[in-house]
Amino acid sequence: MILEIQHETCFDYTEPVKESVTEVRMQPVSDDHQTCQSFHLKVNPGTQQFWYDDGFGNSVHHFDILGAHSQVRILAASVVETHPRRHDLDASKASWPLNLDSATLEVLDFLRFRGPVRGTPRLDPLVEELRPQSGAALGPFVFAVSHHIHTHYEYARDVTLVNSPIDHLLEKRKGVCQDFSHLMVALLRSFGVPARYVSGYIHRANQESQSHAWCEAWLPDLGWVGLDPTNDCIVHDHFVKVAVGRDFTDVPPNKGVYRGRGEEAISVRVETRALERMPSLSWQQQLPALNIPLTAVAGRKGLGPGHPDEESQQQQQ
């Protein structure tokens, strides 16, 4: 499948700010399951852009806008070709408890609890409820964990925050895909299965497109396998991966700070289109207008009198 993705973010300030520093993780990865054929990042006001790979291999673009400005608009546009997935969880020979002798240090890094994926007494009853029998096949087990979250927790916006720990979902039994993914990561790590958080997009034909989050579990004979507890499925060619990390704090679509007294409001929109063929080399000059309204999300804090010197991210998925 060939997908064109547009992700627009708008920062508006109640009064002009002196400077804003931003980094974004919006460029899709290229791996065995997808190829990012082209990526274009447009920033207004115009400024020089820089780029680096972070410690997890994610592409990070960053820029600094100097001088008074009341608005910043970021448009990330991508053309991604996704490939069929052939992961058959039932075919995995891995069993519980998982033998990690073949795991690299990079894989073992996804076993630790940290940030929103933290150990909490509220998690203990669920761990006991889902605990597999010794020798149980891990492929069906990791899908069963995903299915349990899908069937026992309600998808609901504006119940949790971007920095909510898994306690909030466990207590309220409501949340968004970010919360569902954090809970699945926590459960798998509780059983000694490496698990990581994935940020990206999901294309839904004739439905609203959206940024999305899911979980990847590591099995020795399959490698990283994507599972989406929000939609109760194994990740397929309608999913586009942008970044991976230990949890959301490693992979926010944007984060940064600004210097000024004004309050910041952030709004975003995402739209995906399935294409019949690869577009021309000048595709970014012919992008169709986005047909969906901007959606407001929480803003960042500024650096100024009464504001702490901190770097914060905002966009809940």
Question: pLDDT below 50 for ≥5 consecutive residues: which ranges?
Answer: 305-316
Helix % is 10-25%
Q: Radius of gyration from the CA trace?
A: 20 Å
Judging from the principal axes of the Cα atoms, what is the shape?
Answer: globular
Order of helices and strands: EEEEHHHEHEHEEEEEEEEEE
| Count of strand segments | 16
- Give a short account of the largest sheet: 9 strands, mixed
Query: In whole angstroms, how far apart are the ends?
Result: 23 Å
Number of continuous helical runs: 5
Structure explained in plain terms:
- With 317 residues, the protein is mainly beta.
- It is 15% helix and 39% strand.
- The protein has five helices and 16 strands.
- Strands 1, 2, 3, 4, 12, 13, 14, 15 and 16 form a nine-stranded mixed sheet that branches. Strands 10-9-8-7-11 form a five-stranded antiparallel sheet, with helices on one face. Strands 5-6 form a two-stranded parallel ribbon.
- The longest helix is centred in the middle third of the chain and has 15 residues.
- It is globular, with a radius of gyration of 20 Å.
- The C terminus is likely disordered.
Notable traits:
9-stranded mixed beta sheet; 5 helices; single chain; disordered C terminus; 317 residues; mainly beta
Question: Topology of this structure?
Answer:
Elements: E1 2-24, E2 34-44, E3 49-53, E4 59-82, H1 105-108, H2 124-130, H3 138-152, E5 154-155, H4 166-172, E6 174-175, H5 177-190, E7 195-202, E8 210-219, E9 223-228, E10 233-234, E11 239-245, E12 254-259, E13 264-275, E14 295-297, E15 302-303, E16 312-313
Parallel strand pairs: 5-6, 12-15
Antiparallel strand pairs: 1-4, 1-12, 1-13, 2-4, 3-4, 7-8, 7-11, 8-9, 9-10, 12-16, 13-14
Helix pairs in contact: 3-5
